[in-house]
């Protein structure tokens, strides 16, 4: 068997794989679609849940210094004034005057080697004018060269929650949270007192966030509604340097533990830091489906005391900490690890997606996912659809379900439709690590065939042995 590298994996082929295999569907397809929003099908839901459970386990089960939180999507609107999002969470955009395609002006400038990071709009427009006069700006969609001026576009998603009118006047506007960490800062004090926490400690949260992304054409890589897995680690500023290195290592190891090859991972150091940050690195992954380019999966940022100080200033509530041993009082500093569920989903799919040329001339598509992340753990298959085999297979299926469900290990699937070869292929495609096949020998001697996804090796095991085996 050889790995087939000929087929070029790209976002279109991954999206079509996801749709065919009930991982991800484009939203509102029967109405012509709804840009940058996706729905997760049966296997996608299970897979995403496994990623989230693995992340939460690494935060709150494997350590004693982190607690969980599930805060609301809606928060007091002042939250986002204090955090700087209302005034500063913007992207500059330009539109093609011919086909109306919309572009991030800063991304266009970057392509021409001009950094627009934190530059004012005047700078961006001046640089764009230079490119326009040199005839270098061209719409990637229709090829025309006529563009609007750059305008600032807020990424905040507004809603009129609680408002009796349909219009969004400034006083009744409520925002859908653009990041989940806002809820963690607002609950810092409640967590501190209700759980008698001592520094350093972390709060971990998984939840939805919403951004009016201007350019969202990269399947689930950048969407307008997405889930984040964020952890904020509250600590004494004197420990920042050491803790930062620890957290970088912890998060890097997590990717490796779940099967990402180290040569596809990369640290990106932010040279231009937010004024409150002392260090900011991203973990990037080299996507096969995006022309082997490195893209951000997770940010690990030392945010200083900015967040608690701002919320303290805007709320008038003290958010400091008294260390009873050193008798110091100070505002804790925060170390953040922040990653998106869909980004990890796409990364794990990209890394696991394998096409193999088999010796019999066939091609096999197999998702070589870590078994802890695989949507289905075991598939039980009668060799063919015959009553006596189905009856026995359902007994084995029930037994496997009892074992796996009782130990919270995941989903078992039963399938008797089509040839056994096709059913093996189907399970390979969704990444099921083990198939158990029931045949006529099972009826005679009580043994089943266990087939492994990656090696395709098969062995006979007695039904009685399945429990310790699984
Ligand atoms: N609290 C910090 C924060 O939100 P960020 O770099 O804007 O930082 C963190 O986002 C992570 O959230 C990213 O590394 C990415 O994995 C994910 N993410 C951000 N915007 C996203 C989007 N529009 N669609 C999908 N995932 C997104």
Detailed description of the structure:
Strands 4-10-11-17-14-13-12 form a seven-stranded mixed β-sheet, sandwiched between helices. It is an alpha+beta fold. It binds glycyl-adenosine-5'-phosphate.
What can be said about this structure in brief?
With 470 residues, the protein is an alpha+beta fold.
Feature tags:
seven-stranded mixed beta sheet, 24 strands, 33% helix, binds glycyl-adenosine-5'-phosphate, 14 helices, alpha+beta, 470 residues, five-stranded mixed beta sheet
- Name the beta content range: 25-35%
Looking at how many chains there are and whether they match, the oligomeric state comes to single chain
Helix/strand/pairing category: alpha+beta
Which strand order do you get reading across the main beta sheet? Answer: 4-10-11-17-14-13-12
End-to-end distance: 27 Å
* Strand element count: 24
Poorly predicted runs:
none
Number of helices: 14
Query: Mind telling me the C-alpha Rg?
Result: 26 Å
Give the cofactors and ligands: glycyl-adenosine-5'-phosphate
The percent range for helix content is 25-40%
